[in-house]
Amino acid sequence: MKVVDLFDLVIFGGTGDLAMRKLLPAMYRRYADGQIPPDSRIIGVARTRDTDESYRDSVRAAIAQHVKNADAATVESFLAMVHYFGLDATQDAGWSEFEANLKSRAGRVRVFYLSTSPSLFVAICNRLRAHGLNGDDARVVIEKPIGSDLASATVINNDVASAFDERHVFRIDHYLGKETVQNLLALRFGNVLFEPLWNARRIDHVQITVAETVGLEKRGAYYDNAGALRDMVQNHLLQLLCMVAMEPPASLDADAVRDEKLKVLRSLKPIDQNNAIISTVRGQYRAGASNGGAVPGYLEDLGKPASNTDTFVAIKAEVDNWRWAGVPFYLRTGKRLPARVSEIVIQFKQIPHSIFAPSAGPVAPNKLVLRLQPDEGVKLWLMIKSPGPGGLRLQEVPLDMSFAEAFGVSQPDAYERLLLDVVRGNLTLFMRRDEVEAAWSWVDPILAAWKTNPEAPKPYTAGTWGPSAAVALIERDGRTWHDADTNDA
Ligand code: BG6
Question: What's the pTM?
Answer without folding.
Answer: 0.94
